[in-house]
Hints:
Mean pLDDT: 91
Low-confidence stretches: none
Radius of gyration: 24 Å
Number of helices: 17
Largest sheet: 3 strands, parallel
Distance between the termini: 33 Å
Helix content: 55-70%
Shape: globular
CATH topology of the largest domain: Rossmann fold
Amino acid sequence: MRIVSGMRPTGKLHLGHYFGVLINWLKLQDEHDCFFFIADWHALTNRYKDTSDLKDNIREMIIDWLSVGIDPQKSTLFIQSGVKEHAELALLFGMFTPKSWLELNPTYKDMKFNLFYQYIRDFLYGKQIKISEEILRDIFFHAFYHKREIDFKYLKNKLLELGIKEDYVRHIVKTISEGDIGKEIDTYGFFGYPVLQAADILIYKAEGVPVGEDQLPHIEITREIARRFNNLYKEVFPEPEAILTETPKLLGTDGRKMSKSYNNAIYLSDDEDTVTQRVMTMKTDPQRIRRTDPGNPEICPVFINHKIFTDEKIVENINLECRTAQIGCVDCKKILAKNINRFLEPIRNKRVEIEKDISEYENVFIEGTKKAREIADVTMKEVRKSMNLYEI
Length: 392
């Protein structure tokens, strides 16, 4: 089976990326014909203003991929922008992709929802109006999420029902409807990125795409585009299947999902001392105040991560000792830090080897890009012929 998947180069990769994406790629490359690409064009969809770190981020991603064992002997590794045919196919797909498909794209709606919600919350909190985040999100969800446009009448009435001053409500509605909020992503590139994503996948005639459950709508758009092309012109593209991947629950230092934007991540490139320092700042069971208090491991981020990095027998002991106050949080964290460092040690060693001659390893991606371009060129010749475009 041919597999295609990519990652945006937006900074160093962390343990969440490893267990969410890379560990699955390592399995797939042993069993399938895999194409893994650095999606630098996709990185521009919401980072177009400042591209000063783009090349450095690409280089970091090359190092991270190779250091965890993504193997150019088993997979085709390439850089998206080096295969211009992706852009050509996306342009052609865009000619017949309905705007409504893109408007209903969950990622686009999620981003807009969060931007607008964040503004309302910050405005009200700035006015010392403390409303439950759960209530506020529920109001905005119903005003926006299942609609193409915000239902300002509903939003206004609900805010007034909460006792918010009419002047404040008018200001909120006016700012959202007329202001600059959301304009960062109100671009053709962000709105149309699922079309480019479809081109990324279909140009290699992929049969499978590894994704999390939240990304299933993206694959469905790709399948719809493939169907529409095949119906309009000629049977060229397979309809790729989503390969659902289970992601273990990995929490950051603050107890939330590990994310660069939350500043709670442990990076694949962190040295031993940095990892230890980060782990020692991790939140634990909030109900365990004193060392002598019995804890509840199931609500402790440290224990949840033990299930991933620590031997099963030791996890059982920690579970028992925490519940009976035989082990304190500091000692529990030290064990976790030691085990994460043990896990990262071979990755660090490989990283040192790669960094000694990064140009040699960059050439791996240059060669992979050439191979990808040859395959993409064959597909595009077939596409142009199917659409009766002039071949020069």
